[in-house]
Amino acid sequence: MVTQGKQRNHLLKIRNNAMAKWRYYSYDVWGNAKEGYDVNNVFKTNEIVDIPNVVRSDKALLTFLKNIGFFKKSLKVTLFDTDGDDEVIYLNYRGKPEGELRKER
User: What is the pLDDT of residue 6?
Assistant: First the structure.
């Protein structure tokens, strides 16, 4: 999803900020828009994203991920939700669960 070079160039602009590592998990999804979707399985990927700790709001985080090329330009995220402890970011497209980012420990 993201190229290391593009991410690195964007991160150079955000100097002196602590970074958190987030791993992308993809979903195996069953169902359809009419009957609803169910996540059948979750797969850990090798995709790691470094996100500055100063990026705190959902809007700022979404903008950051688009700027580093994590999302394809054609993809429009319709649900971008963080859970209460901000350790998981859920990504849906037109009601279909696509995956999540989990903060690495």
Answer: 53
27 strand-pairing partners? 42
Partners of 44 in the β-ladder: 25
For 73-95, give one letter per residue: b (16+ CB within 10 A) or e: eeeebeeeebeeeeeebbbbeee
Determine the Cα–Cα distance for residues 63 and 43; give it in Å rounded to an integer.
25
Asked if 103 and 53 touch (Cβ cutoff 8 Å), the reply is no
Reported confidence tier of residue 84, pLDDT bands at 50, 70, 90? low
Cβ-contact 81, 6 below 8 angstroms: no
Strand, helix or coil at 60?
Answer: helix
Q: What are the angstrom distances between the C-alpha of 78 and each of 50, 54, 64, 86, 92? A: 23, 23, 16, 18, 6
Query: Structure pTM?
Result: 0.70
